[in-house]
Amino acid sequence: MIVLGIETSCDETSVALVKDGREVLSNVVYSQIDVHKVYGGVVPEVASRHHVQKITVVFEEALKEAQISPQDIDLVAVTTHPGLIGSLLVGINAAKAFALAHGIKLVEVNHLHGHIYANYLESDFYFPVLALVVSGGHTELILMKDHFQFEVLGETLDDAVGESYDKVGRVLGLEYPAGMKVDALAITGTPSYQLPLVYLGKANFNFSFSGLKSAVINLINTAHMKKETIDIANLCASFQKVVVQVLVDKTMQAAIMHQVKHIVVAGGVAANKGLRQEMQAAVAKHPPLKLSFPPLKYCTDNAAMIAVAGYFQDKGE
Ligand code: KG4
Ligand code: ZN
What is the tens place of the pLDDT at every residue in 56-101? Predict the structure, then answer.
C-alpha cells in the first residue's frame, strides 16, 4: 500500500511517499528556518506564504524521487491539526485537490500522531506502548493499548519542552531553533548551576517548564547586573540535566504504573542526546521493557511520519 503524506503545520513544507507504513520511497522537506530565524521564531503569515510558494515543487519532487505516478497511490494522508491554521490550510487544499483529481481516499492526520508513528520507521510497536511526545509545541505522555488508541496521561501546563529550549537559547544569543545548539553545548559542559526541578506531585503526569525557563533568564540577568560572566556550556548542561531528569522520571513512573512493554519517544526533542542517553539508562534497569526513538531525520517535522500515521489510521477505520 502506497501512502502520500503531506505536512505543512508549522515551518516545514514536506511531501513523502511511504510503502506499507515503513519503506520511505521519498521524503522531501523544505525548511523555512532561514526565513524565520531573523525574527527569532516562526511568523505565521510568512510561514503560510512560503508554504504556498513551495508546495507544488515539493510535491513534484517527492513523486519524481519515488518514481511513483498518481495512479500508484492508494491513500493521501494530510496533517489537519494541531498547527498554524494558515499553514495547515495550504497542505489541506493541496491534499484535497490531489485526492479529488485522482480519485484517491484522503485521511486527516493529527500532527502528534505523526510524531509518534515516526517510531514505526525504526521499530514495531509492542503494546501497551507509552509515548513521550516532546516537540516545539507539545509535551505529552500518551498511553496506547493498541494502534491508534490514544489516552493522554499528562501534558504541559505551560511551555512545551522544545519551546523552553528555544527561549533559553534565545536569551543566550543562540539562533532559532536553539534546541540542537543548547544540546550540543550541554554535552561539552558541567551542570554546575542550581536550577529548579518541577514535579507537580506524585503520580501527576503533567509538566511545567515555565518556572525553569524564568530561573535561567533570572540567573543570566543577575549575572549581567553583577558584571559576572556566565559559563554558557555549564548553564546549558544544568538546564538540560533538569529537563531530562523530569522527563525521564515521569515517563518511567507512568510506564511502571501502566505496565507498558514499550516506550516510544517522539517529536523534535527526541533528537536530544542527553534525553536519549538517560532514557536508555533508565529503561535498561527494567528488562524486558523496550525503548525506541525515531531515526534522527524523522524527529523534526516531516511528511513520512504523517504517511505512516495515515496508513495505520486507515487500517483501523
Ligand atoms: O517536532 P518539531 O519539529 O516541531 C513541532 O511540532 O513543534 O520540533 C521542533 C523543536 C524545536 O523547539 C527545536 O528546538 C527542538 O525541537 N529540538 C531540540 C533538538 N533538536 C530539535 N531540542 C533539544 N535538543 C535537540 N537536539
Ligand atoms: Zn512537530
Answer: 999 999 999 999 999 999 999 999 999 999 999 999 999 999 999 9
Measured from CB, residues less than 6 Å from any atom of ligand 1 are: 10, 115, 135-137, 162-163, 165-166, 177-180, 183, 267-269, 271-272, 300-301
Are residues 155 and 111 part of one domain? no
Q: What is the pLDDT of residue 193?
A: 97
Contacts of 130 by beta carbon, 8 Å cutoff, 6+ apart: 141, 142, 143, 144, 153, 251, 254, 255, 258, 260, 262, 263, 264
Report d(CA 142, CA 113) in Å as an integer: 10
**Residues less than 5 Å from ion ligand 2, measured at CB:** 135, 301
Q: Are 245 and 194 a contacting pair, CB within 8 Å? A: no
pLDDT above 90 covers what percent of the chain? Answer: 96
Pair 168, 192 in one domain: yes
Measured at the CA of 245, the angle between CA 223 and CA 236, to 5 degrees, comes to 30
Q: Do 248 and 141 sit in the same domain of this protein?
A: yes
Give the total number of structural domains in the chain. 2
Range of the domain at 32: 2-117+299-316
**What is the overall mean pLDDT for the chain?**
97
pTM above the 0.90 mark? yes
User: Tens digit of pLDDT for each residue in 95-150?
Assistant: 999 999 999 999 999 999 999 999 999 999 999 999 999 999 999 999 999 999 99
139: domain CATH number is: 3.30.420.40
Q: How far is the CA of 268 from the centre of ligand 1 (A)?
A: 3
| Closest ligand by atom to 139 CA | 1
